[in-house]
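Two proteins, back to back. First:
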Amino acid sequence: MNQFKSDFLKILHERGFVHQCSDLDGLDALCAAGPVTAYVGYDCTGPSLHVGHLLSIMMLRWFQKCGHRPIALMGGGTTRVGDPSGKDESRKILSLEQIEENKASLREVFSRFLTFGSHVTGSGNDARMADNAEWLAPLNYIEFLRDVGRHFSVNRMLTFESVKMRLEREHELSFLEFNYMILQAYDFVELNRRYDVRLQMGGSDQWGNIINGIDLGRRMGTSQLYALTCPLITTSSGTKMGKTAQGAIWLKAEMLSPYAYWQFWRNTDDADVGRFLKLFTELPLAEIERLAALQGQEINEAKKVLATEATALLHGRDAAEEAAETARQAFEAGVAAEGLPTVEIPRDELIAGLGILSATVRAGLASSNSEARRAIANRAIRVDDALVEDDKATVVLSATADAVKISMGKKRHVLLKPV
């Protein structure tokens, strides 16, 4: 086991964040010597990041907690181009107004995990949000080709996995996207010049892009730059982290309620509990080892701790505890708690009676009538905690009720509210 000098790498190694590093000993010595500035880049393709981004955000959080300076780089410029990494087709080009709106929305997400102080009263390791449009948008194309483009070999670029995958599958790779890796490499150099950034972090799928930046920095005379990547997380069942039948697990409450976020973590597979506690909470390792060692039904207590701690980091302790209490009431007390996800249904439909198949689909518990029918056959659907055995049954709002609770299994519950 590595004996790290820096708290940052020691913590990341113990918790399972480290996948690849360009020079582990060199980076360790740099971090141990004093405050370092590092960044992770995020394109502004939507108003929220999802749980797949959470690992790199946690790396920035630990970086700041260890006394260093984190930068969340917004891709206001590169979003106009599109990263081909891991994609089979070109990204939709957004308007400048959409990009600005997304950037403002994303800052709210980062403010949950990082401390952005003011330049007047802030501390020396306050987080910064930068935007690569500041230096990419004004670029003179001829000068850029001469000063930066000449350092890139097309032969080498064609060997990168993101490019090879598209070409091997005979999917189009536009010249616009081909330039993405050059622009991202230039970000590293420009951030070094402006803010003395020495380290770029990201997911393992960004390794080639980050190494490009280190190589460009060496050719353009920067200080020694470093790369550190985290693994792309898959669950014990082999699925990509955050991919569910209901869609992405968003980090904005407007797109996914704190209760639904809590439930996502509560539904973690038994085999993943210990690993996820290390990566997505700040609980001490000794406590994590105790929780991960629980067996049988007791592992559910560890899952609740994981859900509450992960939700508290994003939505705050009050929202996390409220979600936990809502779950306790819904699952243990068997009542239709107000904090459950809701779907609005016209009052006339609920009073007249809504078919159970349609109700299950509209609640988001099934993607089709046939899937809902199979769930009923498997005795998985309940309405107000009563088992549904007939797929021709109807859901009716009683005169004394404010909503109808429809459930699939023991963990998924939705309120149908009349409007």
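And the second protein:
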Amino acid sequence: MIDGDAALALVCHRNHRMSFVFEAAQTAGIRLMLIYDSSESEPPHGLPGVVGYWRLPVFEDPDAALKEFVDGAGTRGLGGVMTLREEAIIWTAEAARRLGTPGIPPAVAALVRNKYRMRQALAQAGLRTPTFAHINDPGDISSVESLGFPLVIKPLAGWGSAGVMLARSVEELHERIRTVWAMQERDLSRFYEKTDTPGLVVEQYLPGKEFVAECFVDGDGVHVMAVGDKGHPQGPWFEETIYRLREDLDSVQVMALREAACAGVKALGITMGAAHVEMRLDAEGLPYVIEIGARIGGSGVSHFIVEQGTGISLAELCMLQALGLPTSPLPDALPVRKVSANYIIPLRGEGRFCGFIGMDAVRQHPETARVLTFFEPGHIVPPPPAFGGYPGFIFSVHPTQAAARSYHRWLDDTLCNEWEDVSP
């Protein structure tokens, strides 16, 4: 159990079916106060480790939410604040600063939430990062004409693959810039900082595979908790596909990925907590840092990968640190005991979702650890680049990387979705 009675405020958790952080809190004896935005539904009651709920206008009126949070934190017994949600990183950093509890500086939070400024910081630190440009007018692409094709278009402060598109020609570039700009204004604008100028990042497309490194930062530096394969999405929408832990920590590739991840975290000034580092290989197999999130990735997916693969609770480390409590010393890289994995059920369609085919067999497979489904029959999925979510995640644990790859091939062949057309 944790000494003391201070609770931890968890800000705007995206998906409460992703209960890993709640389970980790309960195991560690950490009490959680769930803060949820006033425009969103109250979280379900009975979640592990949760002792209370607090409705605040985090996204609708962040300044008012900060004042109410600081004024009421004492009476609610709060001793820290953290988030796993990309859109809430800046608000959470400022809340920790005003409360006087551990957190990353708000300026660092603002840097990691702006893809253009992040690119600039990584390039200035001498890291390999795709060539890039910023567009603040969808009708003017003069700043990107010299980059060469194909190009990737991204909202300035998006998350996941929302609004990310590939353009292979000038005609596609014009069309897709207009499409992503419209989607940004419709779906993302309420999450942007008032001081940020709306815009897009256009960057060089790298042809190699994707990887991710999960890091934890403390007073001893950056610790790489896990390195994972993220598949080989090639556009045009860059949907998430798989996540498989790498066990070959001494391989040249994994060592290069670890080195790049640590350098990226340091370049952005992330001094505590989790860092979710996404990387991609170029044509020569060299790792480039694509993006870094100052949070546990995937609403807790990263915690599952680390905990099941190494036996170390990433969420517990982050929660203890946010409360100002000591954490155990860590090596620079953790040894892998098992190969943990996550399979993001592919959409393979759009329209009205009708159900899963093959899910019973998936649940009964001995290497399946947990199945989380997010779509109910009748759920409407819009066409890209609008992001309607993923049908579900399938978490698994395997003795080797080869077994994990075989399991994911089996899922590809076994599981599919049924769709109904809703076009006029």
